[in-house]
Amino acid sequence: MKKVFIIALILVAVALAVLTLLMGCSQEVTVAEVFNAFYSADDTAPVLLGSYSESSTTVRLDFSEPVKLYGSYVGQYSARSEGKSIYIVLPSTLEPGVKTTISGRVRDYAGNTCGFSVQVWGMNPRLPKILINEFTTKGTEKSPDRTELRILNDGNLNGTVLYGGIPDDWDVRFIFPDMDVRKNDLVVIWWTEELPQDLESRDGVINISACCSENLSSNNGTLVLCDTPSIGATVIDAVVYSNFSSSYQGFGTKGAQQRALWALERGHWSGDALDSTSSTATRSVCRYPDGRDFDNAGDWFVTVTGGSTFGSDNTSEPYS
Fold first, then answer.
1. % of the chain with per-residue pLDDT over 70
2. Single pTM value for the model
3. Which of 7, 122, 291, 292 has its CB surrounded by the most CB atoms within 10 Å?
């Protein structure tokens, strides 16, 4: 009986010691930390971030984490994994402006899988340097919305895409056909269903209809020019404009705000949006004639009334 009592005392003492130890560590070891130990395993599937044409026959798919293939093929294409990327070799050349769909499934190193089906566009090896040069967003039937591009060196525009919006959220877009251009050419995209019948032809000026019935966002929006319509395409140039309304940080709607943030967060624009308040159908927004390109509002001015210069040099007086 005495032995039992002694054993009981020892057990109580041990229990008290353990309790004291736990209480002394309570500020360092929390319940949440204990629970987190059970959730340390990776249970998130990889995410496809973008697709890129590395050459006329090779496509790169980038994922959010290192991945490997199921087998050595993605659909009918030969492929290999390398870190966070999958390289896919096409059976034949994918021409500029031509698209194909690639589907398959990958797995991360924790066993989580991701299925994908993505459109990939052929790479254009002759893409020139291009600037968005002038635009209007408050068009009328007589003076519809237009966007002018200035070509900085000889090349071809096949597959290039201009968004009224951003690549994954746009109101209108125009994908260029096979079109040779020369240095200093001006390409004017009319956001209309067809070109005006009385439009005069000028040397060095290419007018083209976007064949659309929708319009650019009037007061708050983005224009984004990319090398292809593929996910994760390279941005060539971008513009963010606003009338600085009282809601959503001056962009009026959550959608317009999100588009602006997309351009800002990826470094395609910096600082405040350019002020579109005073622009009209004939007061266009022009890049300064010196061609400055700092990706901010200082690159731009609004022309005087009737001073839009589509198809000619940006020599109009600024609106005051």
1. 87
2. 0.83
3. 122
> Do the bridges between strand 235-242 and strand 221-226 make them parallel or antiparallel, or are there none, so unpaired?
antiparallel
CATH class of 130-302: mainly beta
CA quadruple 39, 40, 41, 45: dihedral, nearest 10: 80
Residues 6+ apart with CB under 8 A from 127: 155, 156, 157, 160, 227
- In tens, the pLDDT along 8-63 reads 555 555 555 544 444 444 444 444 444 444 445 788 999 999 898 889 999 999 99
Helix (H, G, I), strand (E, B) or coil at 285: strand
313 token code pair: 């040099």
Fold of 48-121: Immunoglobulin-like (2.60.40)
Supply 40's token pair.
Answer: 């340390």
All CATH 2.60.40.1220 domain ranges in the chain, comma separated: 48-121
Per residue in 40-55, pLDDT (tens digit) is 578 899 999 989 888 9
State mean pLDDT over 273-299.
Answer: 97
- CA-wise closest residue to 61 among 89, 85, 93, 90: 85
Rounded CA gap, 288 and 280, in Å? 18
